[in-house]
Structure formats: C-alpha cells, structure tokens
C-alpha cells in the first residue's frame, strides 16, 4: 500500500525514479509563505462555516503559524518524499497537531491550492518589481534634473542626428520604465483573482465562503469558472511579459552605456566598483555589469517562451505539465530583481563627461536640420533648404570643417538667405532651446516632463 497522502487508490509504491522525477519540492519550497497564508485563510473559513469544528480550525491556524515561523527561521528541512510544498506543510502540520491537521484539506485540491499560491507569489513579485522600477526612475530623474543644460548629440542609425540634452535622453528611459511600472501594476491586477474553491476542476459540495477567503487574503474578486480557476496561468505570462519588456529596456540602456564608456565615445566613466579588468591586458576597464544585464535579457525571454510553449497544447483542466510554470516564473523574478538593483547602483555611480558630450553635439553636423529650418524661416521651401544644406555638408566633409567653422561669405555662396544671425541660430544651445514643445528637448519642456514623471510615480 502506498504511503502517499493520496495513496489510498494504489496497491504499490511509486518507483524511486518517478518520485524524484515527480517531486517539485526542490523549487516550489519557496512558495511556503504563500501556501501557509492560503491555508490559514482556508482553515479560518472552514471553522467559521462550521465545515470543521472551530477548535480544530484554531489548532490548525496555530500550527500553521508555528510552521511559518520555523520556516522563516530556516529550521525546517523539506522532505522530497512529500513531493511538494503543499504536502510537506500538511504532513508537518499533522505531525505537530495530530488528527486535526488532516482536516485542513477539506474542500480543497492541490490544483486550486497551487493556483492560489502562484497568484499570491505573482502579486508579491509584481509589487517588488514595481518598486524596483520606481527606484530606478528616481535615480534617472535626479540625474536628469542635474543635466538640463548638458548638450549632447542625439542619434539615429547610430549616426549623429540632432542636438539634445543628456536630461532629454535620460527621460526617454524614464518613459520606458514608467510603462514597465504600469505593466506590473496591470499584471498584479490580473493575478489578484482568488481561485480557491475551484477544487480539482468542478468545485466542491462543501458550503465554502469563497468571498471570505478572498477577503482574508486581500483579493478583490474570485474566479468565475472552476475549470479556468485551476488551469489559468495567464497571470504568470503577464508577469513574464512585463519582465521581458523591462529587461529589454535595461538591455538597450546597457548597450548605450557600453558604447558611451568606450574610448571612441568617452561619454561616461564607469565606477571601479561596477567594472572589471582583464587577466592579460592591464589597461582594460570593462563594463561587465552592463554586459551581463544585457546578456541576461535573453534568459528572461526564454522563461516567457518556455511557459508559452508549455501551456499551448494543454486540454482543460489541470495537467502535470503545469508544474513547469514555477521555475520559469521564479527565474525571471530572480533575474529581473538583481538586474534592477545592480543596474540602478551602477547608474548612480556613473561619471558623465559632459565636456565630451557637448563637444560631440557641435560635431558631425547635428545642427544641419536647424540650418535648413533657418533657411525656411528666411523664405526657402523646406525641400530647397534641405538640398542647399546637403550640398553645404558635402562641402564641409571635403574641407574637414563643421558648419559653424565656415565664414558667412562661404555660407552665402550656397544661399544668399544666410545672414549673420545664422551662427547663433544653429548653435547646439539654440537648436535645443527652439524645440520647446511638449515632449521636446528644450530645458523647460524637460522640466515639465520630469514633473509629470514624478506625479506619475506618486500616483
């Protein structure tokens, strides 16, 4: 006869290799907090409903709180022969309080139990990631406020395009991370639906008060279909997608910091505490932290893809395949958590070489569009102005000069519309200041964007 808690149907024990293959306690033990929280709420409701004696419910709750305290303190060794965290907690409870512990599972299946645990875990993870994104946004906002006047070149195709400010560039990432924050808030809302009471797939005949359990656990709603209640993992996919997009944004930023810290750009200097060296080249200072965050992005993408593929062919309701949801979720959570923390710390220690950035803004014809706009303001059609400045840039390339290096007389050979005020009009500072529209790079516009971002973070 099987010694398993579910072993009444079986006449012999499962093979050892099957026990090892089937067990999930090695990774799902990290759900112990969520599992015990759910069990305390379930037992409380069972007692209130008179489904089990109130004295037994009280003993169960007291026993579960003791297990939680011991688990938090690291005093529990989880048993592989108990398969998973649910069976471990129940077996440990029964060992401690006796027969009353066997009543805990009344009106409940491991199917709706694990669905509850996963939702609680995902809700906690969403709040943690949201806080991590907010901390990064605050670091970016503080740096942006300090660099409202720091000129640099904006790029398209990795070619110098138009002058902007460092503050404006950083605020682009703030916008990305604010969207990430919103995605985690949305994922939290979709996870916050209480599935307990769905049973294995068809609910239960016991008079459960699902609303009471939801209230005790802080859920605003309960699931509306028992089949879906146990088989839904969309909320986990929502988290994984939000994590993947956040990692993508971190990766893009890391790519720029890798470029900016190169000698060719020399826009930033990485702090020694967030750089590494070479075992053979003594001069090297490598941006390994940024590179590793960039590299771990693919890992989180893989977690999302793994769960999508796991779920794609599953019939209703619960299938053992769904045990594979946990490692993907846990890995993405762990990876994004450390990446947000280390990236924020790295960013806060960066040294920006503002003189190099400002010199770069004056080079590479980043003011060419403004020269064309100047001609438009002096009567030329834009297409004609575009052609004039294009020829002017070609001339400068041959002569190894910048637009601001040319005398007025030379400019007027390309168009008599050029006047003495052109040099002020196409300076990097003027190019930026004239773009004073919502979302633009002018300091006043960026100040407004910073204020709006702070308001969004406070909401």
TrEMBL record:
Chief subcellular location: cytoplasm
Source domain of life: Bacteria
GO cellular component: cytosol
Keyword entries, A-Z: Amino-acid biosynthesis, Arginine biosynthesis, Cytoplasm, Lyase
Alphabetical list of Gene3D superfamilies matching this protein: Fumarase/aspartase (C-terminal domain), Fumarase/aspartase (Central domain), Fumarase/aspartase (N-terminal domain)
EC number: 4.3.2.1
Pathway(s) annotated for this protein in UniProt: Amino-acid biosynthesis; L-arginine biosynthesis; L-arginine from L-ornithine and carbamoyl phosphate: step 3/3
InterPro entries: Arg_succ_lyase_C, Argininosuccinate_lyase, Fumarase/histidase_N, Fumarate_lyase_CS, Fumarate_lyase_fam, Fumarate_lyase_N, L-Aspartase-like
Start and end residues of each Argininosuccinate lyase C-terminal domain: 365-433
Fumarate lyase N-terminal domain ranges (all copies): 8-302
Entry's localization field: Cytoplasm
Transmembrane segments annotated in the record for this chain: none
Record GO terms (molecular function): argininosuccinate lyase activity
Single GO BP term: L-arginine biosynthetic process via ornithine
Substrates-to-products reaction catalysed: 2-(N(omega)-L-arginino)succinate = fumarate + L-arginine
Pfam families from the UniProt entry: ASL_C2, Lyase_1
Record family assignment: Belongs to the lyase 1 family. Argininosuccinate lyase subfamily.
NCBIfam families, per the entry: argH
Protein name as catalogued: Argininosuccinate lyase
Source lineage: Bacteria, Bacillati, Bacillota, Clostridia, Candidatus Avichristensenella
Gene name per UniProt: argH
């Amino acid at each position: 006869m099987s010694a398993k808690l579910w072993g009444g149907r079986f006449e012999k024990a499962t093979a050892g290799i099957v026990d090892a293959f089937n067990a999930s306690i090695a990774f799902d033990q990290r759900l112990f907090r969520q599992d015990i929280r759910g069990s305390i709420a379930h037992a409380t409701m069972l007692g209130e409903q008179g489904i089990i004696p109130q004295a037994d419910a009280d003993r169960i709750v007291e026993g579960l709180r003791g297990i939680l305290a011991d688990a938090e303190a690291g005093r529990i060794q989880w048993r592989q022969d108990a398969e998973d965290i649910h069976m471990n907690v129940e077996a440990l409870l029964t060992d401690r309080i006796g027969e009353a512990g066997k009543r805990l599972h009344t009106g409940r299946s491991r199917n709706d139990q694990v669905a509850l645990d996963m939702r609680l875990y995902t809700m906690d993870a969403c709040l943690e990631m949201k806080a991590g994104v907010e901390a990064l946004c605050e670091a970016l906002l503080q740096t942006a406020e300090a660099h409202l006047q720091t000129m640099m070149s904006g790029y398209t195709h990795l070619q110098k395009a138009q002058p902007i400010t460092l503050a404006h560039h950083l605020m682009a990432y703030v916008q990305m991370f604010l969207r990430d924050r919103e995605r985690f808030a949305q994922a939290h809302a979709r996870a916050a639906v209480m599935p307990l009471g769905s049973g294995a797939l068809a609910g239960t005949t016991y008079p459960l008060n699902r609303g009471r359990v939801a209230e005790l656990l802080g859920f605003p709603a309960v699931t509306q279909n028992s089949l879906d209640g146990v088989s839904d993992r969309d909320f986990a996919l929502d988290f994984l997608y939000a994590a993947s997009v956040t990692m993508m944004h971190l990766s893009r930023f890391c790519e720029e910091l890798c470029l900016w810290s190169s000698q060719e750009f020399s826009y930033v200097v990485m702090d020694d505490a967030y750089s590494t060296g070479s075992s053979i080249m003594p001069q090297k200072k490598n941006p390994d932290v940024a590179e590793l965050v960039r590299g771990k992005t693919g890992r989180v993408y893989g977690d999302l893809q793994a769960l999508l593929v796991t779920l794609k062919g599953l019939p209703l309701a619960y299938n053992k395949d769904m045990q594979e949801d946990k490692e993907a979720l846990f890995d993405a959570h762990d990876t994004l958590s450390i990446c947000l923390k280390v990236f924020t710390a790295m960013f806060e220690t960066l040294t920006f070489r503002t003189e190099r950035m400002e010199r770069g803004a004056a080079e590479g014809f980043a003011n060419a569009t403004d020269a064309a706009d100047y001609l438009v303001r002096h009567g030329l059609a834009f297409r004609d102005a575009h052609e004039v400045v294009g020829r002017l840039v070609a001339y400068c390339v041959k002569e190894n000069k910048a637009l601001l290096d040319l005398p007025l007389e030379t400019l007027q050979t390309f168009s008599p519309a050029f006047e003495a005020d052109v040099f002020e009009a196409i300076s990097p500072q003027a190019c930026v200041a004239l773009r004073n529209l919502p979302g633009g790079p002018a300091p006043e516009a960026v100040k407004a964007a910073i204020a709006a971002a702070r308001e969004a973070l406070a909401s």
